[in-house]
Specification:
Layout: H1 2-18, H2 29-33, H3 39-52, H4 55-61, H5 70-84, H6 86-95, H7 99-107, H8 112-121, H9 123-126, H10 134-147, H11 149-154
Helix pairs in contact: 1-3, 6-7, 6-8, 7-8
Length: 157
């Protein structure tokens, strides 16, 4: 009898928490299949996500309703970071050191030390003119990294 009572309390508790909001199950396949704000749908969504283990994939790739995190967001973070810090990056990339350059390395998936040395040696290709924009910098950077086999491997390109 006590066990049944505890089970009932647990089910009511889960149902009450499911009532709190539409996406209580989080993102993933379950949230895509069971979109209603009914307790049973939220429980089924959470169970589906847990059973199939798709939520980690969805968070990583930014798919199945996951908008935060993911590879797509990382690319946007790199663009925003570069646009916001272009002039500081220009100085640090020329010097081959600095925290902004290390941050750009991390956002590019590269280890900081080889990235900074690489950027210094390829500075003229990264900034071909004093009017180089942040978008152009990223294009030149990706081209230079991709054409260098050791950096392409180090940066997992």
């Amino acid at each position: 009898m006590k066990r049944s009572l505890w089970m009932l309390v647990a089910v009511i508790g889960m149902a009450a928490s499911a009532q709190a909001g539409q996406n209580d199950a989080g993102c993933g396949l379950g949230a895509q299949l069971f979109k209603e704000n009914r307790p049973v749908d939220q429980i089924l969504a959470a169970t589906t996500n847990g059973t199939f283990g798709n939520q980690t994939f969805a968070i990583t790739t930014g798919t199945l309703g996951c908008s935060s995190g993911g590879l797509i967001k990382t690319a946007m973070e790199r663009e925003v970071f570069t646009a916001s810090n272009l002039r500081v990056l220009e100085v640090e990339l020329a010097a081959g050191k600095g925290e902004y350059t290390a941050s750009l390395a991390a956002l590019s998936g590269c280890p900081a030390v080889p990235f900074q040395a690489f950027a210094k040696s390829h500075y003229d290709a990264l900034f071909p003119s004093d009017k180089t924009t942040s978008a152009e910098l990223l294009i030149h950077l990706d081209q230079a990294l991709g054409s260098d086999p050791s950096m392409a491997k180090a940066c997992a390109l």
